[in-house]
Design brief:
Length: about 475
Amino acid sequence: MSLISIRRYLSSFSVKLFLWFWFITLTSITVSRFITNQLLNDDNISIVAEQVNKEDLHFLNRIKAKLAQNPFAQIQNNHKRKKHRRTDLTLWTQLPSDRLKVDKLSKQKGRFNDILKKHIQTRENDTLQSVVYSHTRITGPIPVIYKNQQTLLFVSKKMPRKTFQHFLKEMPLWLKLMIPLTISFTLCIVLARSLSKPVLKMKDATLKIAQGDLSTRVTGLNTRQDELGGLARCFNQMADKLETNISAQQRLLGDVSHELRSPLTRLQMALALAQQKGEDQEQYFERCQKEINQLDEMIAHVLTLSRLENSFKPLNIASFSFTRLLKSIISDQQLLAENKQVNIECNAKEDITIQGDSHLLSGAITNVLINAIKHTTQNSTIKIALIDNNHQLSLTISDSGNGVPEDALVKIFTAFYRVNSARDRETGGTGLGLAIAKQAITAHQGKIFAQNISLTNKEHQGLAVTIELPKSQVNQ
Ligand SMILES: Nc1ncnc2c1ncn2[C@@H]1O[C@H](COP(=O)(O)OP(=O)(O)OP(=O)(O)O)[C@@H](O)[C@H]1O
Ligand SMILES: [Mg+2]
């Protein structure tokens, strides 16, 4: 697997979709686990410190000394001093009724104080110790006499918020729920939009094409490497093909209706003359027959061209001997050439096998050869050169006629184009032969082009039509 194909695979839509869902699922699992932990209150997990915290002990001893002087002294945590801002002071008093009374002396509220309360109530003995919860340290108890009662003194201190985990732990529950909800909501929106936007674009483009605007294309998605980018490119290719096919059809239809008129008019005239003249009708009927044949030929050509232009019909690809095909085409046209005292010279000796639709290729080559015979001068030679170039072959048919004007070298391959309309029509040409040949060769991924053969100090010395064909057909 090459690096490019791996990259293409990773940017594919299915992988993206998979990663998105996977990511969202993992986020949900992680967050729900975290919240469950929080709800189970991992503050219950405590570690007894090896030594009593000196700072806390000093603080407790200070209060003990103060109470020794005056058991009714006002004990308050001094929150104004930065050092004590995170300190929670609690006095636990044993009441005569054996009930417990917890006096909260500091102003700390909520969870911080809850941990301290829970610690006091659940501790096992009265040994002075420092116990560290996840982010709270509690030191105590120190027995004192407070308001004439035996009382135990504890101090709790919030540890500095060192970690992100502590920060998260202290968040209110609603915020803890909101964060994963917001993250997954945003991710899902991004995913949904990245899915729906191109689909909507394509839907709009399809609608426009359905309404007849064949120039519509999907824009902005061509660079996307995933399946949707591929779909957009295919859509545009389809629209291109549709546009060229339909415009080719419209052009052909216009040309056909125009071209059909001339033989029909001549047919009408011949029939009218045959009706008028009582005797000698034979020659008019012959004329009618000729026109009908021409019409028949033209319709057959139009149908072939239309099928090839639409490329709906798949090619009948098979391996065959090109040399043998060429020789049979030459022998078929030998009679036509002899009538004009034209000699056909072919250099093809070796047997060249190619893959292709032999019927279509035969039609294309026959037309080029007939054209050459029609346009070459009497008593001349038509040269056929077949060159085998490894993967492709090149066939050139050259005559010694007048050639065509330079600006018509390309035009002769368009339907109904004839250099000399009146004369070519008279000779029976429909002007479709080379257009059909071009479509047939293009369908084989080959090329066909014409060049005037000019010799130095001389006028045009005829036309050379070259057909280049790949020997094997791929993607068929
Ligand atoms: N070898 C040639 N020498 C000079 N002109 C040519 C030659 N081959 C083709 N042409 C010109 O190109 C035009 C188009 O050729 P094309 O084969 O398409 O039509 P056609 O021969 O007139 O009719 P069709 O082949 O349909 O019976 C011809 O009418 C002719 O004017
Ligand atoms: Mg022709």
